[in-house]
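Margin note from the TA: students keep mixing up input and output lines. Inputs are the sequences; the output is the structure of the whole complex. Example:
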Amino acid sequence: MSAINRQILLASRPKGEPSAENFKLVETPVAPLADGQVLVRHHFLSLDPYMRGRMSDAKSYAAPQPLDQVMIGGTAGEVVESKNPHFKAGDKVVGMGGWQEYAVVDADQRGVLQKVDTTHVPLSAYLGAVGMPGVTGWYGLVKIIAPKAGETVVVSSAAGAVGGAVGQLAKARGCRVVGIAGGPDKCRSVVEELGFDECIDYRQFTDLKAMSGALKAACPDGIDGYFENVGGMLLDAVMLRANAFARIAMCGMIAGYNGEPIPMTLPQLILTNRMKVEGFIVSEHMEAWPEALKELGTLVATGKLKYRETVAQGIANAPEAFFGLLKGKNQGKQLVKLV
Amino acid sequence: MSAINRQILLASRPKGEPSAENFKLVETPVAPLADGQVLVRHHFLSLDPYMRGRMSDAKSYAAPQPLDQVMIGGTAGEVVESKNPHFKAGDKVVGMGGWQEYAVVDADQRGVLQKVDTTHVPLSAYLGAVGMPGVTGWYGLVKIIAPKAGETVVVSSAAGAVGGAVGQLAKARGCRVVGIAGGPDKCRSVVEELGFDECIDYRQFTDLKAMSGALKAACPDGIDGYFENVGGMLLDAVMLRANAFARIAMCGMIAGYNGEPIPMTLPQLILTNRMKVEGFIVSEHMEAWPEALKELGTLVATGKLKYRETVAQGIANAPEAFFGLLKGKNQGKQLVKLV
């Protein structure tokens, strides 16, 4: 195999919003395989909000993405050549191949490459509803919010890959589910396609009072659980409508990703409402993945868990698609299709 | 019995800091007992920060203190007359008798009056280390922070009745314990008498950077657990030094009791540090009281749990003592001695 591998490297760290100059497209010949290695051709590259954090070198839970190396990222593809007895050409696999067309993988390392069955679940879904975003939603909902039937659960970024899963899993548990998303198209899709009870277009409610009022109207019995992807004013507004013993699963705070201040205005509500606010990173809870993937895979295979995808074409378009994701231009899972 | 009962009523609700005019001292004859009732003469009245919240009629977890009625409050005293078979004159009891010298108690109601044994534990301690403040500290530490030996626990209002218990219970569990208190006398007492490893005088560190630096110096391995009685800048400073998976038990936020804004500046740290922040009210966890009181009572009776008391004399001085408590003038448990 002597294919040319097109790769995207992190060229520099953004100040504020990331831009095209932070990335660099390079072409590298694919190296011959050593024993134990597998060559994977990527069909889909996953784009996720967490990548914005890795581009910075601020102290965080994960090491920053090194400069001049292939951007980190989840990938789904097909084995095209194997020197590993556990994999053969034609196997469909998911891994963390990064922003490139091919990856040479030391497949003996536990967990770096998983074979997946595409009989009933499309390959791309393993990067979304039956992958990291789905498990993220499952963990925050099931393990932190732990909703009871009849409770009200609010989900921000409801039209995103994570939020869509959260809402449908909560509906399956007998909850009233209210999404928050940007724009009428997303809101319509969240209600009509994903089956949320209501969806609030945050662009229509631009201050705390208005958003809090919209939440009051949509959640007449108050809010028992909140899955947080955004932060800032939305978090304040939800807290004003929280019931006693409400739980907030903090998954993301995209409102502050470019360094904007996003203070929590009334932390005393955590006390007066006896709330629990808990942050989590799904990769630290690998023990929960099998149970989560089993439920998510079954729901997708039987058509009970819906999801949307926004697909960019070709590795060169990955940065633009990523900027769009950060601005909420996608609906559902943002992918880059490479084959 | 035809004693005169001196009582303090809430006369008006404070705007900002409470003042003497919010209270009114009245004299009322003690009514004759009906069947099942007990007349208790109060020896000690407990003053606690939560009372400030009850003086306001803002939405909160508890109903506001009604105007023109006896201020709510825990009391310890002695039965002087009984028409209830379970109590006799001379019994030492604790209850919620309020700011008055005597209380007529319908003692058949479960939980309104408890007999206590003063052989090894002084009566006043049942309002402090072996009472609501002690159990409050126990619950937040044991059930929310759940510290492991070797971890670092920080306690604000460390010289108060709750904070003092938290720190000593954490020391007994093998933790490094750092208090935060106001002034050199309190800090010395917290270290020398209560056995904390260090105590930071917050008056010496008046901005976020300085306080965060002081915490860094006192907690070289970071902060794993924080017992919050204050809020505001202290909470921000602790969060900047929190370790991954740190737990914050929110018990009080006295910095905001008079309506001052106390935003949490960097809520995104809850996410990046995968923290848990949980508010609680100890009266909602009655199932935990027996275990807590058993440990606290044993520790006090054997001299292993130290506590301080600040004692005002006479019912007429209760309001001034309460204002002092809100300003941190007390050390340890603030009581009013009535007999």
